[in-house]
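ARCHIVE CARD
CATEGORY: sequence design from structure
SOURCE FIELD: tokenized fold
FIELD CONTENT:
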């Protein structure tokens, strides 16, 4: 399931989408959800993509992925190994 939270005017509008009804059966992705979607689930992965502009010619850009595990479900899960496919 997917929602673009930047299109929503309030937390109530996010609640109207009923994204929480399938949390046990589906992957739910909420883009631009900071400050809006945290209440959907106690256990979640918060993913941020940080863009960095290089100083070289052509304005090379790199991206850094930051993942924050929230909740008991993720306690002890080695996310680096999971993401690397180990």
């Amino acid at each position: 399931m997917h929602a673009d939270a930047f299109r929503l005017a309030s937390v109530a509008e996010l609640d109207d989408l009923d994204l929480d009804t399938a949390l046990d059966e589906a992957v739910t992705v909420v883009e631009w959800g900071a400050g809006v979607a945290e209440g959907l689930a106690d256990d979640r992965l918060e993913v941020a993509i940080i863009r960095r502009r290089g100083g070289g010619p052509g304005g090379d850009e790199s991206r850094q992925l930051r993942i924050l595990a929230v909740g008991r479900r993720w306690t002890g899960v080695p996310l680096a190994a999971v993401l690397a496919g180990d």
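CARD ANNOTATION: The mean pLDDT is 84. The beta strands are 2-4, 29-31, 44-53, 61-70.
SHELF: design records, drawer C
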